[in-house]
Design goal:
Family: Belongs to the bacterial solute-binding protein 2 family.
Organism: Pseudonocardia halophobica
Structural class: alpha/beta
Protein name: Sugar ABC transporter substrate-binding protein
Order of helices and strands: EEHEHEHEHEEHEHEHEHEHEHEEH
InterPro entries: Peripla_BP_I, SBP_2_dom, TAT_signal
Keywords: Signal
CATH topology of the largest domain: Rossmann fold
Helix content: 25-40%
Number of helices: 11
Distance between the termini: 23 Å
Number of strands: 14
Strand content: 15-25%
Length: 354
């Protein structure tokens, strides 16, 4: 995503830093083709390192919620496909479930089987924290995927999306577009996900903060439930309450199917919309440019592929060859890119089907 300028010439990275958003790790790249001189004290990563080289055989257990949502389905598919890339990995998934007790029981079987590593996307991070601790205490490294456990003692590495960054990306796109059109006092709607989830709260906070940097504020807001049905229901209510909109952000592209349906049923097209997560169907709509949907901000399920890759390296006591450090980092946050008609072709191959 381009580092588009916010008001005052402040780039998105600077904006995040100014708000106190810490980066997990910064890797400085050497821009010179010359090797560091001897005695310089410089630490550099070995050039040409290859983590794909087979290592010790390992079994990686995997657990995630039921695939009743396009994004979750892509998580499971990506994890399986990544594991199949490695001849030294045995992939051991348990049955997906939306029941916390059933997920705990299923992962306990993997712990008892003494798998070499676990990748867990918990239904509820808080409720499964003790399970992560149990695995770690049994010397089974846990890669905590997306929904984070309450304690860092419950996982070896966390990898997930940037929920606050999603909101910033959506708010920045909307703010730039409205400012370029010289719109004053815009009415900006928001269709959120599940309001009691921290991820929804973080997305809304990032959105509000980014809009505030333009002097704008969030207008009518409704929370849905990350389903197409919920998106359609709450959007119908929002549109009835707001006879005029200038822009709308929907947090989730699966939910967005219903959001767009409600917009079409209401015959509304005086505003533009931004989606969330990066589904393939949303990208195709953006590419066709025949709906109010003009952009989406990513929360990519490719994180599951990376989680399997990290679990393999951790289980094999290997690091990431392009990094100087000998160990895999403890936390990795994916960036949230803004997909528009101009760059959608680059991202479409990574989209998931809603």
């Amino acid at each position: 995503m381009t580092d588009s300028l916010l008001p005052g010439g402040l780039g998105r990275r600077g904006f995040l830093a100014a708000l106190g958003v810490g980066t997990v790790a910064t890797v400085a790249a050497c821009t010179s083709n010359e090797a560091p001189s001897s005695g310089s004290g410089a630490n550099v990563a070995a050039a040409g390192g290859d983590n794909a080289t087979p290592g010790a055989p390992v079994t990686i257990g995997f657990s995630a919620p039921a695939a009743d949502h396009g994004w979750i389905a892509a998580i499971a598919n990506n994890a399986k496909a990544q594991a199949e890339q490695y001849p030294d990995v045995t992939f051991a998934p348990v049955n997906p479930t939306n029941d916390v007790a059933q997920q705990i029981a299923a992962v306990e079987t993997l712990i008892n089987q003494k798998v070499d590593a676990l990748v867990i996307l918990p239904n509820d991070g808080s409720q499964l924290t003790s399970l992560g601790r149990r695995a770690m205490d049994a010397d089974i490294p846990v890669i905590n995927l997306d929904r984070i456990f309450d304690s860092p003692l419950a996982y070896r590495t966390w990898i997930g999306g940037d929920n606050y960054g999603m909101g910033v990306s959506a708010g920045t796109y909307i703010g730039e577009r409205l400012r370029a059109a010289n719109v004053t006092n815009p009415v900006i709607g928001e269709v959120a996900g599940i309001d009691n989830l921290p991820l929804t709260q973080e997305r809304s906070k990032g959105f509000s903060d980014a809009l505030a940097s333009y002097g704008y504020a969030v207008g009518p807001r409704q929370a849905a439930d990350f389903t197409a049905q919920g998106g359609q229901r709450v959007t119908a209510n929002l549109l009835q309450a707001a006879p005029k909109l200038d822009a709308l952000w929907n947090h989730d592209d699966d939910q967005g199917i219903g959001v767009l349906a409600a917009i079409n049923q209401a015959g509304r097209n005086e505003f533009f919309m931004v989606g969330g997560a990066g589904s393939a169907n949303a990208m195709r709509d953006i590419q066709a440019d025949n709906t109010v949907l003009k952009a989406t901000v990513t929360y990519s399920p490719t994180m599951a592929s990376s989680a399997i890759a990290l679990a393999r390296l951790v289980a094999q006591n290997r690091g990431m060859s392009d990094l100087v450090e000998k160990e895999v980092p403890t936390s990795i946050t994916l960036a949230s890119a803004t997909i528009t008609k101009e760059n959608v072709a680059d991202y479409l191959p990574l989209g998931f089907e809603s």
